[in-house]
Design goal:
Two copies of one chain form a homodimer. Chain A is of the alpha/beta class. The first copy, chain A, is built from twelve helices and eight strands. Helix content of chain A is 38%, strand content 16%. In chain A, α6 (112-125) packs across α8. Chain A is globular.
Chain lengths: 310, 310
């Protein structure tokens, strides 16, 4: 039998994962029935690279550039101009509402099928600005091994992303082996239209409810999965409530926090280091609750499945 | 090998199901890849008995009766009094809004776990007024066989109900073998609260979006499943858009409409008979599109898995 988690180095994080899976699946006081073995993973920064920008932001900006050839109004305001130059940060200085509206309008009016085709093509062809490969190749190999390990132990594994649910679904099966119905994410409003005798679902320029970050994550897990997870993995403040939800259930739970501390092989940013006074809230929570912090630099033997230019 | 669909009598409906499953799973021009084999079933009146009232309505009325001992305000209005007497029809004469509010308040403030425990207990103990058995025993045996047949051919099967998603989830695994995450239904708003150090999700007295009937069914299928179904089954006007959605996709599709024409073994009501001028919209659609009408009386050798008093 091959060794489990081969991309993980010996250490506290690898041991915590292996021991948890063993503990809840072996007969004993902490045994958890297969129906309650639910695991949830944040996407950006937890399963794949989110720097220098979310893949989805780049995807939408590419679409805005295409649209702007026929719609000069997109470049008429300073936020639109900043977006077309790829400067999301500058665009955001003109207000989150203005930027959200521009981003939501980029694919409004498309059917869900047309949107999926756009997203699939982009994910196959667009390349990461530093690593020079399509974004799905920047999935974290060690996390794929965790998903495989969980599945081999009868866990149901869900992606719970702040990103657009339809965007992540366009790659979830190919990249993570996770089917579209096991992706929970931010959704836009859809309207039913009859076009040429066909029922079509058409994207509107508005969110359906709130974006899937913070408290909406556990709420949407309940709405979609109907059970409290016993394993949750994340890397930022938007994942805090999801991890707390798993952590405070009646069953044994494991919470993983990915620390981006590897500037050489990936990125180093806003670490979960608890000695850093500017550390984000998830770092404080990890310390308080004893969550397992995963150091990319120390815990991972490799980051991506295939070598990339660094 | 045992004969497929043993509770179905020879006839057009049984043949249509067997031929469709064979056609889309056999190598050939109509072959559908397993990832696209998605089937959706309405619940009340399609998978189990919905007369003389929805099980969920009776469940909520029982709860209101319990609550009314300590909350005289529930019986202070005519709609509340009608509900406490079990007369939903009379209650509705005072307005859908008034009744909805009363029904939503019945379980408001409960955590999702407490609600699930209430629903499970009720489903085990409350008995149907005519048949004298708990409601889950009034599942349609022929439909369970269709679900089994589809699963044996690598279909993913979802329940898409106008009923409350949490109520149906409380019995879906035991009754249909369908896990909670494969139930799509009407949802109430949840709020995240921290109670005694635990993150809890608490039911509010408001729907989340619209009830899952009509156009919301395909919209929520997309939100949850992310693919257009190729098989859809329903029995009433609320299922029309869901069946149209499956019917007008690019892939071969089968739509089933259950006709309640069996007063002796179950109920006869608002049939899909296309010769009846007062027939509901789903009957006209079935005729127009050539959907497969399933006659309980003629097509089913038995209705329920175990004999019940009639």
């Amino acid at each position: 039998m091959p060794t489990a988690l081969p991309s993980w180095r010996e250490g506290a994080a690898r041991s915590a994962i292996l021991e948890f899976v063993d503990r809840v699946t072996r007969r004993g006081p902490d045994h958890v029935l297969p129906t309650a073995r639910v695991a949830v993973f944040d996407n950006d920064g937890t399963l794949w690279c989110e720097r220098p920008a979310y893949a989805q932001a780049l995807f939408i900006i590419d679409r805005l550039r295409e649209l702007s050839r026929e719609r000069p109004d997109i470049a008429s305001g300073p936020a639109g101009r900043a977006l077309l130059e790829g400067d999301l940060e500058r665009a955001l200085r003109h207000g989150l509402d203005v930027v959200s509206t521009l981003l939501l309008e980029a694919h409004a009016g498309l059917t869900v099928d047309a949107f999926a085709a756009h997203a699939e093509r982009w994910l196959e062809t667009a390349v990461h600005p530093r690593f020079g490969v399509p974004f799905p190749r920047l999935v974290y190999a060690p996390m794929l091994e965790v998903i495989d390990l969980l599945r081999a132990h009868d866990f149901r594994v869900f992606v719970v992303t702040g990103g657009g649910v339809e965007f992540v679904r366009a790659t979830s099966e190919a990249t993570y082996g996770i089917p579209p119905d096991d992706v929970v994410g931010t959704a836009v409003r859809l309207e039913l239209e009859r076009r040429a005798g066909k029922v079509e679902l058409v994207r509107q320029a508005a969110f359906l409810g709130s974006p899937n970050e913070g408290a909406p994550k556990p709420i949407n897990i309940q709405g979609h999965v109907g059970r409290r997870p016993i394993l949750a993995a994340g890397n930022s403040a938007g994942d805090l409530e999801m991890l707390e939800y798993a952590h405070t259930g009646a069953l044994p739970a494991l919470c993983l926090v990915i620390d981006h501390d590897d500037a050489e092989r990936e990125y180093a940013y806003q670490g979960v280091s608890v000695t850093d006074p500017s550390a984000p809230p998830i770092a404080a929570a990890a310390l308080e609750h004893g969550w397992t912090v995963v150091s990319m630099r120390r815990d991972w033997e490799r980051v991506f499945p295939d070598p990339v230019e660094a």
